[in-house]
Amino acid sequence: MTRTRLGTTLWAALTLAIAFVMFFPILWMVLTSFKREIDAIAFPPAWIFAPTFENWRVAVFGGPVLEFMGNTAIITLGSTALALALGVPAAYAMAFYRTRRTDGSMLWMMSTRMLPPAGVIVPLFILFRDLSLLDTHLGLILLFGGMNLPLVVWMVTGFMEDLPIALLEAARLDGATLAQEFRHVLLPMLVPGLAATALLALIFTWNEFFFAVNLTTRSASPLSVYVSTFKAAQGDLFIAKMSAAATAAVVPVLLAGWLAQRQLVTGLTMGAVK
Amino acid sequence: MTESTTAAAPAGKPRPAPATAPAPAALEGRIGRGRRFLSAPAIVYLIIVTQVPFAMTIYLSFTNWNLLRPASAGFLGVENMFRNYSRILQNPDFYAVVGNTVVLTTSVVIVTFVLGMAFALLLNRPFPGRAIARTLMISPFLVMPVASAIVWKNLLLEPSYGLSAWAFRSLGLPSVYLVEIAPLVSIIVVAAWQWTPFVMLILLAGLQSMPDEVIEAAYLDGAGPAAMFRFITLPHLRRFIEIALLLEIIFVLNIFGKIFVITSGGPGLQTTNLPYQIFLEAFSRWNVGRASAYGIFAIILANIVILLFLQVVRRKRQEEGR
Question: Over 70: is that where the pLDDT of B320 sits?
């Protein structure tokens, strides 16, 4: 008895230790963002230090981070809204009006999400150039909306398939129109699922870099493009400020991901694993 | 919002549907025919956003268009149309790049599979603090890949004040700059850090879907931990492993941001994978034709994996009777 209890404790300790190690780079980034630049490059590393908000004041609230974050927010929200607007009706058809082609369409949609971005970047760049979409929010919204569409269709179809179909029938017997049926019957039950779907779409869009760096130059660039400019050392006095900017870029998605933890697996595999 | 929806919800509730009516039949008929096409906008939109560019890539790969020479935007001609492809296949760089892509992807997949499986098994037993451990462990996957790359490069692997330097020094070893002595390995390390949680999450979902009776039965039959894992857990996890690894391969094949930040594909071509090579062809050499032909190779490579993946998903859906 005591032996198994000791074993359990050891396993738990080991697991927590590994979890801490995995999380450590993130923690170190956050800690560094509160160091003075001189402490940030101290050797041996400064484990204990007097925290300062200077980096956050200068690099995040006084610097361009907020501006880029604004771009990210516009692009992320816009493309998620677009994906929901197109994807939810599609999911409705897929869940409740199945045909012989439904499975095929669903799998095809999933496969489009897996198309390598590098394989289509050249024509996209040319299309964007010719349609004056380069370096615009609209361009990335249209593109990322399409990128998130399969995710929305797959996840929402799954949520709809889980609903009690009797409710829909009842609404229909009462003579509900499609709009009424959707607004009064489906939507209230789908809110948690839609929220989880939106959070996942937000996570993927927020972190996207490849399309963003190639299709924007400055005015519509999202945060990921700005963060990448820290790849070259900009003098010695930038490590702590870089950490502050990176932390600001990472925290919203970290929180969203923690919130959507239960749906994360469904979202990552587009419903292939629940 | 919440108020109005809760007030409105009972609209559909008061009269429960006749229990005898077969569920799907009620939804068939005249209404069904129209509503079935609610998926049309999404499908059309996806065709425009993905298939049109794809078709354009094929066409562009048969041109000698270079954006620096605007007059060059022409089809190569029927007898010459595969020139971009033959040039690529004759260039040793191509094999180096494909080799890097394969080494990078395989290494990340192997490392993350071993670690992800171990972590999933550890997290599959109840203990106080499990939720916290799980939350901490999934976090690397949520971090913006470009941000994780600059953190690893400038805070952790940095040779003079980075944490790895301190770790090496504490162990009495000379400090090494991983990015310099083994650039591809440094990319693999950062990518494995990001993707281990992904594999772990899916395998954990698989472990938690294992019916208790099966585990109990095997336990009563005297199966030890090793036999249990080999003959009960692994077979049950097969689908989950397939899905996790295939999805991971698809996305790891596309790794770009980390290379962009940590090594810029160098030194030389040592860390250039297919996406990065396409990026160089397209946006530093502006060679539209060549970049598109490279793109076709990337698409072919990805499609092999995608087809395998779809096969697994289709099988799984059929088994579930969907």
Answer: no
Residue B2 above 60 pLDDT? no
Chain B residues whose CB is inside 8 A of the A41 CB are 160-161
- What's the ipTM? 0.88
Burial class (CB in 10 A: 0-12, 13-18, 19+), A22: buried
Q: What is the pLDDT of residue B11?
A: 36
Look at the alpha carbons of B299, B302, B304, B307 in this order and tell me if their dihedral is positive or negative. Answer: negative
Q: Are A187 and A30 in contact (CB under 8 A)?
A: no
Q: A173-210: per-residue pLDDT in tens?
A: 887 788 888 888 888 888 888 988 898 888 889 999 99
Max alpha carbon distance in chain A (Å)? 74
Chain A to chain B Cβ contacts (< 8 Å): 368
**Hey, which residues 202-241 in chain B have their CB within 8 Å of chain A?**
202, 205-206, 240
Q: Name the residue in chain B with its Cα closest to that of A107.
A: B310
The alpha carbon of residue B181 is apart from the nearest alpha carbon of chain A, in Å, by 18
Cα–Cα distances in angstroms (integers) from residue B210 to residues A262, B129, B214, B322, in the given order: 17, 22, 8, 20
**How many residues are listed for chain B in this entry?**
322
Strands, E, within A117-225: which ranges? none
Which site among A114, A167, A174 would you substitute to test the B interface, given the most B Cβ atoms closer than 10 Å to its Cβ?
A114
How far apart are the C-alpha atoms of B212 and B192, rounded to whole Å? 32
**Does any CB of chain B come closer than 8 Å to the CB of residue A234?**
no
- The DSSP secondary structure of B59-123, one letter per residue, reads HHTTB--BTTBGGG--B--GGGTTHHHHHHHH-HHHHHHHHHHHHHHHHHHHHHHHHHHHHHHHH
Q: List CB contacts (< 8 A) between B122 and chain A.
A: 11, 14-15, 18
For residue A233, give both structure tokens: 């050392």
Q: Report which of A81, A71, A74, A69 is spatially closest to residue A250, judged by C-alpha positions.
A: A69
Amino acid code (one letter) for A37: E
Please tell me if residue A27 touches chain B, with a CB cutoff of 8 Å.
no
The CA-based angle B258-B305-B64, given to 5 degrees, is 70
Sole residue written with tokens 């180096």 = B96
Asked whether residue A82 carries a pLDDT value surpassing 60, the answer given is: yes
pLDDT digits (tens, 9 = 90+) for B117-165: 999 999 998 888 889 999 999 999 999 999 999 999 988 988 888 888 8
How far is residue B124's CA from residue B195's CA, in Å, rounded to a whole number?
19
The model's confidence at residue B26, banded by pLDDT at 50, 70 and 90, is very low
End-to-end CA distance of chain A: 36
